[in-house]
Amino acid sequence: MIIRETNDSFIMIRQHDHAFLSGEIIKHFDHSLLPSSTHFNDLVYAAYQHDRSWIGLDDTPVWDDANNTPYTFADYPLLPKMAFYRIGLDEIERENPYAALLCSLHFHSFFTKSKKEECLSFMKEERMRQSRLRSALPETDEELLQQHFRLLQFSDDLSLYICLNEPGARKEEEHPWFKDGFKNTEWFNRGQGPLQAEWGGTNTIKIDAFPFTRECRLTLTYKKVPKESIDEKGIAQAFEECDWLTETFTLQD
Q: What is the model's pTM?
């Protein structure tokens, strides 16, 4: 779950709904910035499906007593999270091996600085998966694969930018992950450094060196769960009783 706290509520976004934005972002990406259109549809599939591991976990939110908030994707207990990561990656692999290779690279990148035994074991398993998938995809262009991987990361980050920031936030108010732009985007930003985003209003995000074919409209699904309701009923029932809401954002040059 992606969580953004307000004075009286928690904005709660399921990971799979966030991933839908990622898929929409990649679908509108300008193909001419890539050397080839090979596997582009597989990249789109990977973006839409990359967080399907969270479908079961996000069905019922869990309360973090230590921090007095719902658990988020960033601090969810490690062992169940990794178990569901494996399930989701297995499901993607059964449907689309190239997308599974991209998603495996993506999830592996989360833990490269960790020394925890569970993380090291997970990374070892994913390197084995990647080796198996590369063998099954012998014609794969490694340079193109790495560009697709970086694009998957960008779509994830841009979607998170929308989810984690208060709409219309000033640059100095943005979530710290994105104040310096999006990592690994220099290659399609014409060498001008990381791609930057900035709110142009509560429903408009301006992107420099615009990498999309046209203005892009994105619809986010979420719940706004009142803190008072959580105190009275608990997080699970309070979440269940809230209606789903939607908000539309536009990416502009």
A: 0.95
Strands 204-207 and 245-252 turn out to be: parallel
| Low-confidence residues in the chain, pLDDT < 70 | 189
Tens-place pLDDT, residues 170-206: 988 999 999 888 988 887 767 778 999 999 999 999 9
Whether the CA torsion 209, 215, 221, 222 is positive or negative: it is positive
Kindly report, residue by residue over 230-245, the tens digit of the pLDDT. 999 999 999 999 999 9
d(CA 28, CA 212): 5
Give the integer Cα–Cα distance in Å for 123 and 23: 25
Strand residues in the chain grouped as ranges (E): 2-5, 9-13, 63-64, 69-70, 197-201, 204-207, 216-226, 245-252
Q: Are 207 and 178 in contact (CB under 8 A)?
A: no
The alpha carbon torsion through 178, 180, 183, 187 (nearest 10 deg) reads 130
Q: How far apart are the C-alpha atoms of 165 and 6, rounded to whole Å?
A: 11
Which of 81, 80, 12 has the alpha carbon at shortest distance from 51? 81
Helix/strand/coil for 64:
strand
Using alpha carbons, select from 160, 209, 222 the residue that is nearest to residue 22. 160
> Which pLDDT value is given to residue 189?
67
Query: Are the beta carbons of 85 and 93 closer than 8 angstroms?
Result: no
Who contacts 23 (Cβ-Cβ below 8 Å, separation ≥6)? 44, 45, 47, 48, 49, 155
Angle value at C-alpha 149, between 2 and 92, nearest 5 degrees: 70
